[in-house]
Structures are given as C-alpha cells and as structure tokens.
Amino acid sequence: MRVFVAGGTGHSGSYIIPELIAAGHEVTGLARSDTAAAAVSALGAKVRRGDLQDLDGLKEAAADSDGVIHVAHRQDLLPSGGIDAVAAAELPIMLAYGEALAGTGKPLVTAGSMGSPGQHLGRPATEEDPALPVCDEHKGTLRGRNVVEAAVVGLAERGVRSSVVRIANIMHSTTDRAGFLPTLIALAKEKGFAGYPGDGANLWNAVHVRDVASLFRLALEKGPAGAYWHAVEDAGIPFREIAEAVGNRLGLPAVSIPADELMVPGYFGFLANIVTQNYPASNLITRQTLGWEPAQPNLLADLDNGHYFSAS
Question: Are 166 and 116 in contact (CB under 8 A)?
C-alpha cells in the first residue's frame, strides 16, 4: 500500500513510518523544512515537501496514495490560540482529505484523544462512545478537538474508510522528550516533591509509542469505516501511583496537592484542569476487532527502566 503520512517526524509518527515500512508499505512523509525532510528520509520514507496550510497539496498527496495517516498538528498556534485554534486549523485539513478520498473506500486514520468521550461516565470509556459535542464551556480544553474527530468519523458516510485512534493520556518511550512524563519529572525536580491532586485516586491511562504505531498500521490495513480505536495499555492507573513512581526515582516524596492549591500559580499551573480528570478506558473492542495486543513495557515498568531520568 502507498501510504501518505503527515506528522511523520513527531513522537508517534517517527515510530509509525518504520512500522509501516517493516510491514511492506511504501511510505511518503510530509516535510515542511530541510531538517524534516532529512528526518523523513532517515526513517526510510520518500519525502513530499509541503505544510499543513497547503490544503491543495494535501488533497493531491491523499489522492495519489492508497491511504493516509495524519498525526500532525499546528502546534505553532498553541501559544496564541490554544487547543481551540489548533482544532480550527485541523478541521479543514480533514475535510480536504475527505474531498480527495470520497467514494474510494481508501483508509484515513487520524489521531484522537482519550478525553473525547468525556468524563464522569461511571465506567471505562469504550470505543463505542462517540466524541461528545463541544460547547462554550469546553473551550480551551482537549474536548475542543472533538469536532475534528467527529468530522473524520463522519467521512465514512462519504465512502472513506475513516477512523480515529484515541491515544492514551500518557504516550511513553525512550525518545519521549517533551511529553507529559518529562513535564511531571521537571515539576517534581523544581518543587522538590512529586505532586498529585487530592487523594490521587483519579485514573489515568497510558501506552507505549511502539504499540501506538502498530495500532495505526492495523487500523490502516483492516479497520472498518467510522470507528474509534483505543491505543491504551494501562487502562486506569491512579495518578498517585504515577507521582510515587516519579518520586521514588528522584528520591523525592510524593505529596498531595489540595484543591485550592492546584490552580495557577499552584503546583500544576496550567495543567491543573487536566490532572484532576478521571480517564479510565477499555481497549477490548480494539483488541477483538483488529487483533491488537500491546507488547511493550507498561507505564510503571518504563519508569522503572530509568531512561526518563537519565535523559532529564
């Protein structure tokens, strides 16, 4: 299969491209700069120069392929417009892919968030839970991207084999340098202790990036149209245990942060609204339908490996 990948030099994309090539696919990666082009080539893929603002170029790349994987975001918009601006820029990209792939039955697989089914379900989120509508109260939160996920799944009605891989809150690996775990570790070192919100019983989920890559490949190869997939290995880890693991490695205590000290300029700062959420999730349908089985170390084992701390 000839596969076009946007975001191939990012954390997940740099694992997705080799996964696809190892499975016999011919991959072309989008590259905005000479540096990105060199990185795409080093991964073994062909290079297509362009950027996410060139919708005509993206449509052409999609039309020339047998399938598309999109894991790129306009991160340059985050400082000024936040997640709402990122989602607003991403939506026309998905619609452009839809125009190029409509009626072909070709796959389009994009990255989603485990926060999209919402909170307070009273049970783990499943792949059958849709991305919830976005209201004014959700502006500035991860749920702002739900309009993008809903649009991608909706392309199934136009003859696109579209699906969304909801990636766990924590995607870990030996090359994770700017994700959530490095942020937690930096905070603990700065504050002198590893904090967790309240009693720390709220559940988070996690997955190794190599397992994420294999799931994207399976969704591309055989995933039915209009589906959500859950890239989750650890379905629900109490946040307190994550803080304790970080603290143990750094030789620092794990400390509860009271609710009135969570917000800016408290311990977690702008992350306060995120770290207090509860994200239990199931991967049963993903495993049963696609035959996906996580094979890499889980979150706590990866923290025990020590590479996060030697790198920091």
Answer: yes
Pinpoint the alpha helices (H) of 167-236.
180-191, 209-222
Q: Is 44 helix (H, G, I), strand (E, B) or coil?
A: coil
Share of the chain above pLDDT 70, in %: 97
CA distance 108 to 220: 7
**Per-residue pLDDT tens over the stretch 125-169:** 999 999 988 777 667 667 778 999 999 999 999 999 999 999 999
Which CATH homologous superfamily contains domain 2-172+207-233+280-296? NAD(P)-binding Rossmann-like Domain (3.40.50.720)
Q: Which residue has the tokens 């994987």?
A: 69
> How many angstroms separate the CA atoms of 244 and 234, rounded?
16
Token pair for residue 193?
């202790």
Rounded-to-integer distance, Cα 49 and Cα 242, Å: 40
Kindly report the pTM of this predicted structure.
Answer: 0.95
Which regions of the chain does DSSP assign to beta strands (E)?
2-6, 26-31, 46-49, 67-70, 107-113, 161-167, 170-172, 194-197, 203-208, 227-231, 234-238, 254-257
Distance CA 250, CA 245 (A): 9
Average pLDDT of the chain, as a whole number: 93
**At a CB cut-off of 8 Å and minimum separation 6, what does 232 contact?**
114, 166, 168, 205, 206, 207, 281, 282, 283
Question: Domain-by-domain residue ranges, the chain?
Answer: 2-172+207-233+280-296, 180-202+237-278+303-311
CA 182 – CA 188 distance, rounded (Å): 10
Using alpha carbons, list the distances in angstroms from residue 246 to 50, 191, 196, 232, 277. Answer: 40, 13, 11, 21, 19
Helix spans in 54-107 (H): 55-63, 78-101
Work out the average pLDDT over 247-253.
97
Q: In the 8-state DSSP scheme, what is residue 306?
A: -
